[in-house]
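ESCALATION

Customer reports they have been waiting on this structure for their group meeting. Please prioritize. Original submission:
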Amino acid sequence: MFMDTIVQLPIFLKGLLVTIGVSVPGFLLGLLVGLMLLLMARAPFALLRWFAATYVSFIRGTPLLVQIFFVYYALPGLTGVNIPAFVAGFLSLSFNSGAFVTEIFRGGLSSLPQGQWEAADALGLSRSTTWRRVILPQLFIRVLPPLTNEFTMLVKASPLLSVITVVELTRSAQLVMLQTYMPVEAYLVAAALYFVVLTSMSHVTRRVESWSERSRA
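Update from on-call: job pushed to the front of the queue and completed.
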């Protein structure tokens, strides 16, 4: 009986590729959004600080599902540009993750010694050079574990994209279940694939952390 589900493995793998394809770029763009918001939050202009604070509060205060619907259904109406479901899903995850990444960066930044800034000023480094050469390399190492957790949460949130017709891993399991009428087996395969991907990601992160600690020793 289980073989009826196993033979549908290509459908699961195709769904897994969509999950990875929407989660990885979404997370990378979320990193960029989070970094830009962090810089805005520390800018000398009140308007930029207000925008960053409002963005983070709005995203954290609204459900991801509503944000997905907004990007897929409302944004094309406002911009006049039709957005494919996959792109809308990718953008929704990015915009959502960016707010949480900002908070991760903010927490990591507060843990850096103030002496780092003072030493850079004493050396005559410009603000942009201080960020690129001194602050950001240390910041990324410090926030690597919570960033890994954020990526994990993003992958786990990706099944919500099925509401805008993105056929990711969970939706693929539903399609297989409709063919085989064996929900237990279908969702067991999907859960196993999620487990393999996320566990592998955690393992790679631990290796990077270990390498970083050895290089700083």
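Sent to customer with the following note: The chain is about 85% helix and 0% strand.
Escalation resolved.
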